[in-house]
Q: What sequence folds into this?
């Protein structure tokens, strides 16, 4: 018997060969932070820039990838344990890169993990801006991209892969 796991959403993105360090992709064009987003839970319209002065943890996800959803569940659980999330000094934003579909995909994380962050669809223009300013990993949903936006507005694409609470705390302390 052979078992495998992976995305089953039709065309797979080409593999990314270069793995940048967090310091390798910083700043770039920040216009993507100004794009208006509508929260799927009814919190209104916001932009990443509207959280200036706070740390923002931004995740880019896809509901078309079952194994990605599993990894997202684990990642949201780890992020929820950050002291800064609990004391509101960190804002978490989850953006779904897929075309409009079932808003229940992201919305379920509000209940399952007592998620207090923001959720929205990632507009196409913002997707392109993220790709241009942060590189291909910023929109490679198989790796659950995490972008750390520091209180001063500097954006840092974190290395791909699962991040524990301790790893996120360390990266926040060293990069911001």
A:
């Amino acid at each position: 018997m052979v078992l495998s796991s992976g995305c089953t959403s039709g065309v797979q993105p080409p593999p990314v060969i270069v793995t940048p360090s967090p310091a390798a992709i910083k700043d770039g064009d920040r216009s993507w932070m100004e794009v208006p987003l509508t929260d799927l839970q009814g919190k209104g319209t916001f932009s990443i820039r509207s959280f200036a002065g706070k740390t923002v943890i931004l995740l880019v996800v896809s509901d078309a990838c079952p194994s990605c959803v599993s990894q997202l569940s684990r990642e949201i659980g780890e992020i929820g344990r950050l002291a800064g999330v609990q004391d509101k000094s960190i804002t978490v934003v989850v953006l779904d890169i897929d075309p409009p579909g079932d808003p229940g995909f992201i919305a379920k994380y509000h209940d399952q993990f007592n998620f207090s962050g923001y959720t929205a669809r990632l507009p196409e223009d913002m997707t392109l801006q993220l790709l241009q300013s942060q590189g291909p990993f910023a929109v490679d949903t198989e790796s659950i991209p995490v972008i750390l936006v520091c209180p001063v507005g500097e954006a840092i694409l974190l290395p791909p892969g699962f991040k524990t609470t301790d790893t996120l705390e360390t990266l926040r302390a060293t990069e911001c």
